[in-house]
Amino acid sequence: MFKIKNATGGYGKTTIIRDVSIHVNAAEIVALLGRNGVGKSTLMRYATGLIKATSGSVEIAGETAPPSPAKRARLGLGYVPQGRFVFPRMSVTENIAVAAASNGFEAKKTVAAILEDFPLLQPKANDLAGGLSGGQQQVLALARALATRPKILLLDEPTEGVQPSIIDEMAGVLKRINEEHKIAILVAEQNLDFCLSISERAYVMEKGTISIETDRDSLRADKELQQELLGV
Amino acid sequence: MELDFLATVLLSSLSSASILLIATLGLAVVYGLMGVINLAHGEFIMVGAYSALTATQIGLPFLLAIPFAVVTTMIIGAVVELLIIRKLYGRLFDTMLATWGLGMVFNQVAILLFGTVSPGIGMPQWSFKVGDYSLAVYPILMIFVAAVMLAFIYLLMTHTVYGMKARASIQQPQMAQAIGIDSSRVNTMTFAIGSGLAGLAGAILLPIIPATPSMGLFFAVKGFLTVVVAGPVTLTGSALAALGLGGGASVTASFMTSVVGDVFFFLVTAILLWLYPMGISAKWRRKL
Amino acid sequence: MFEKLHKNAGLIFPALATIIALALSGTLNPYLAFVATSWVIFGLLGLSLDVIWGRGGLLSLAQTAFYGLGGYFGAVIAINLAPSSGMTLIWALPSAAVFGALIAVALGYVIFYSRMGELQSTILSYTFTLLLWSVTQTFKLDVGEARIGGDNGLSNIPGIILGFGSEAKKLGPNEAFATVVVVTAAVYFFTRWLMRSNFGKIVDCIRIDIEKTELLGYDIRKYQLLNFAYSGAVAGLSGALFALWANYLNPSIFSVQEALLVPIYVLVGGLGTLAGPFLGALIIGGLSFWLGGGAAGGQTTLILGTTLILLVMFLHNGFLGALDTLWKKFLADPNDAARSAGAVKIDTEVLDSILEEAAAQAGPAKNLSTDEAFKRFGGVIPVNKVSLDFASGRPYSLIGPNGAGKSSFLKTCVGIYRPEGGKILLDKDDITKTAIFERVHKGMGVKNQKPQVFGENTVMENLWIAAFARTRDTVQADKTATRILGMLGMEEQKSVQASALSHGQQQWLDIGMVLCLAPRVVLLDEPAAGMTNEETRELSLLVRTLAKHTTVVVVEHDMEFVRTLEGHVTVLHQGEFFAEGDIETLRANDAVLDIYLGRGEHV
Known about the structure:
By secondary structure, chain A is α/β, with parallel strands linked by helices. Chain A is 39% helix and 28% strand.
């Protein structure tokens, strides 16, 4: 369904990821694990087209993705970046509406449906996104990505700087949208518990390449790998 | 000092501030939504003025000459964006220099086509009286025009899909692309709208400021300072800055000389930049 | 041969140009000589902008303000002194330069000390020029014989007179041309010398990375201000030359068109090249001259405008920049050596001796402590009343999950963040409100998370500028930089541009620069990020050796690395102190494991 093939890329002259290949099946949730600085975020940005590929390709829903990030979004790639990057001087409603409208969906209906899904955002609907708390912004970034009706959703460190109650809620939401709308999810995380609670399969990255592919149960059982992963 | 004199000063200063605002709005839109300082803005005003003038000369009524000028400048703006501005994204100072070069070209072309002096079109000769003083209607009407333009831009930017896309593109350029916004098309549109607003200014101010090839310069300089003083919340910021700077300069000028008015304008600009290095609206929480 | 020529191109070609101009000056058509004099003067004005823009990084649109003010000031002096003393240059030029410099200092003080943004600085300088433009329209003043008459201008300015006494005659156009060329050449060669001196090197560093330059201990704002003052002096001097050449000044010298013409000279010739503005002024002046003569029916503006657009779009570095790029293609690429870099090998004996020497020069290690340090950003409190003490002996590590406030704590200690409460002490010295560069003088050495190197400069230049910050002595700095270069194993790469190095090599170079400072307290923010396993091992060795001599604080994510440091570990969590001890104790601590694993119930 979603494939990254032999991805090599980075910033300027610096290559950060080398020959990375991963795939996510339809309606599957896959975790991308690894310590800080191993290239998880770079891989995510590679997939969205926000950094130029040195080599390799991306496939979304069976089609080879064009270089333009906007076209990839319309092919069904949703992206929630690390650090959220909501549009700060736009209201919560506008943040969602612009995402829907840019992909040819009816803005009003989408906003109503999404606010239904995220009751947390309802009282804030007319507030500027820049004034929301970190956790609320994270939820909004997720809501915005969902408004593009993605087939595959990329989440980069969704739990970073988010309070535990919202983390739990988020895990619930992700599972629900995965089941209800059959959206495939690739989530890059350092929070192992969060990943174990939602994903069945995981890739582990190390120094810009995939070092291990594993599933939930073996990850749970393997204490040594856990320690290695988190560096604890 | 008499009350009717004060009222006259107040009205004409408000009118001057409005004229400044009308001439500035296009610049504010382009800077606020693209991050581009268009130094050829004054020349776009000039193109608007000549377009309207030409239209009236071939027999179009003035009210129809205005939309003609807007369309002409919008088309020129779109072409300029596609050919030049697009190649210079993210290079603030380079765009400033390139648009300045463009201004020189426009200026010279206008001299070639129209000569250095051209006939003005007569201002509608209505006037009204405030006490002992008589005021022309048309300049006072500009207060209303400025208000309508402000409202129009506000609605365009908040209630249309284009407006939301444009605001998203300047606030988080990469995320805007990542959610499917085709930023380059949005930018072409924004630059065309900014140019169109300049054209509108040139046309609508034609009865007050006759078309000459160098007419834009004066407005462009002051408009440019207004926009930079305004800061990130461009629309409200510019309106307030135009009112304070333009209105203040006009009040000063009516009590002293026009040079003192200019000195007031530049001095207050310098002080405001010193106090608010990122513009007066840097910390405001507003959409536009 | 070609290498040498390329290296000294800025000396040889301008010298040749000067000689040719002087040789021609006698035989030139007088009218052409008269016009060409103005091109040279405009080139000098362009040079003043290149100093502050190409080297200093600030696009100043106030150059014509300094130029005009210098012109008026010099002219007033010349008018009053010429009748009795003859000689105009020795009065007018220095006084105009001093006046220009003073005005630049006043304007620069506002710009640099209020830490204005780039665009705002440019706009403020532009506003300043416009302000003068409107003021001078009505400004009337009589100074002795000189009558400044508002928009009527100032006339009767004597020409260039070289002889002394009341009998001395004004030079003819050809002699005046030669004189202006000589004065200009003198200023150019002095500027070139200045920009290659230690002062110029520091100014270059400020342009490339202002934060890093301050972290090396340079008082950046002082250098920016001095550079602006020099630029103002050159502009003022060229203004006086212009006044003497034109015999007349009026407020149009402060006009918008004049102000914007100067950046064009610089851009056409090549930004940052110093010689470029002269070429630019010559090309544009020459173009206007020939075109104005009828070649294109007077379409000068049209052609200039088009040229400007094309130049900005296609020739980013102007003529000299493009020529330089072309030339370099035929020379050996010094950056080739970057690829042949070997592995870094820390020799503890060498390092020990370097550090002992540093201790002998800079004094013993200093303790760093914080007392209830508190920093907030709106609702977020990244540093919440943290009190910690660090001393030498063994390394200190700060760990904690993402967003725990480790980097913010470090930035607060360095002075990048100003705390709202609490104190920061270096030994007994309260440095809470001390400027960053002064903290560095007091012995703080900092390496930020991302490698901060001066990319345009060579490896050796990077180390040298750091060593010079401490020693203030060229020979000493050479020695220190060479030793550190050797320790990093980068001798082969000494002439490579830092930007050509790999990420890991840049990290090492950055660490090397910190070592050149011989700091008494070293703060390292994630030094192991982006390093290979072997490099991490070497880094661990370096940090342990360093800690024997100085106080070392490391912020790190890589727990494996922290373990090998065998030091004291402090855990921060949500901006607060959470736990401390050695790594084994902390590993046994459930609460610590939990915050790392993010299990909800314990948070």
